[in-house]
Amino acid sequence: MHVETAGMSIPTVPSTGSRPRGAGRCVAASLLAVAAVAGLSGCVAAGERESAGESADESSTPGADDETAHAATRQLDAVIDAALGGIDHNSEVSTAFEDACIAEQGFDPEVTYGDGGGYSAEDGEAEEYQEASLDYWWGVSLPQYAEKYGYHDVDPADFMETWTNTGPPAPKELMEARVGAEYLAGETDEPGGCQGRWLDVAYEGVDMTQTEMREMASELQVRVRQESRATETALDAVARWSRCMAGEGYTYADPHAALSEFVTMIERSDGSWDMIKWATPEPTTDEIHLAVIDAQCKVDIGFWDAIDQAENEAAQNTLTSMRPQIEALTEANARLTHNVAKLAAH
Predict the structure, then answer these.
(1) pLDDT per residue over 273-306, tens digit each?
(2) How far apart are CA 264 and CA 253, in angstroms?
(3) What values do phi and psi take at 160, rounded to 5?
(4) How far is 304 from 217, CA to CA, in rounded Å?
(5) Residues 266, 220: contact at Cβ < 8 Å?
(6) What is the percent of the chain where pLDDT is above 70?
(7) Contacts of residue 253, Cβ cutoff 8 Å, sequence gap at least 6
């Protein structure tokens, strides 16, 4: 796996915060190509918990063969991931098309410029990073990470190798040729230039634009995540966690309240987080002490298992209540896949 943010990679989907465990998605796997720009936030689907998750209590980690418990989540994830990925799932085809377009305008697509960087992950490393990541709603995941990071974001460099491109910065003319001057200036959400030409060809006959597909997929993500918090399953897990914390001498109504002792943030309507500010640059001793107890209580009561179930319940409700939108998104995905397959054949 290669996670990168090169100078040519222009993120078009905002980060929605990270979720260390659970079946639901906060940021689809397809966003990892641009995620380092936004903190490399990500999610791990149920049954994919590796590395650190194996050392957790069995009660908090559902088995990989437990398909039925997460059927709705998996079904909705497939639609969301395809929509958020879009042409990213066919990067070899789109890259070849755009490179040929760039070459037509007198630029050498093989030149490497020194305005990019990111992380190179071996098998399991990105998943472990996601497992460890702070969830901006539910807080810390496992005790071993809480012991090092407290309620602070984890450092991706602790899990993956960093890399940077060397060479001169990419000239503005090249960037404009790739994505268009207006897109580069932030004046439009739709790329122009060679990327725009690629999108015109790839999305021919598709009833939704790339931006519309991704916006709808993000809306589905946010809906499931936010509705899952209000399910009886989630509320029961929160109550059990709160009782566990009380037994350790701490009174918190929910994990977010404990997290909020050390970081302030605002959740936007689109599910992203803003105004994130930690009380201290590095975790304090008191913060780490509380975070470890918090994470251990989650392990002891099977908290993440319950959150998985709550998200599956919310996903099932969404599959029913938003069926027309999901069918439209599925049809658009199918048409896009068909178009790209035809382009790849040529």
Answers:
(1) 776 889 999 999 999 999 999 999 999 999 999 9
(2) 17
(3) -140, 155
(4) 23
(5) no
(6) 78
(7) 238, 242
> What is the length of the chain?
346
pLDDT of residue 18: 35
Q: pTM of the full predicted structure? A: 0.73
* Stretch among 95-109, 133-147, 157-171, 266-280 having the lowest mean pLDDT: 266-280
Tell me, what amino acid is at 18? S
Dihedrals φ, ψ of 56, to 5°?
-80, 165
| Residues 167, 173, 178, 184, CA torsion sign | positive
Largest CA distance in the chain: 69
Which stretches of the chain are DSSP H helices?
A: 32-35, 71-85, 91-104, 125-132, 143-149, 172-179, 181-184, 193-202, 210-228, 232-247, 255-259, 285-301, 303-321, 323-345
CB atoms within 10 A of CB 321: 12
Contacts 24+ apart (CB under 8 A), 186-192: 189/12, 191/10, 191/12
Summarised one tens digit per residue, pLDDT across range 56-114 is: 343 333 333 456 678 999 999 999 988 887 655 557 888 889 999 999 999 998 887 87
Residue with tokens 């796996």: 1
Report residue 192 as tokens: 């122009």
Instruction: Report residue 219 as tokens.
Output: 């809306």
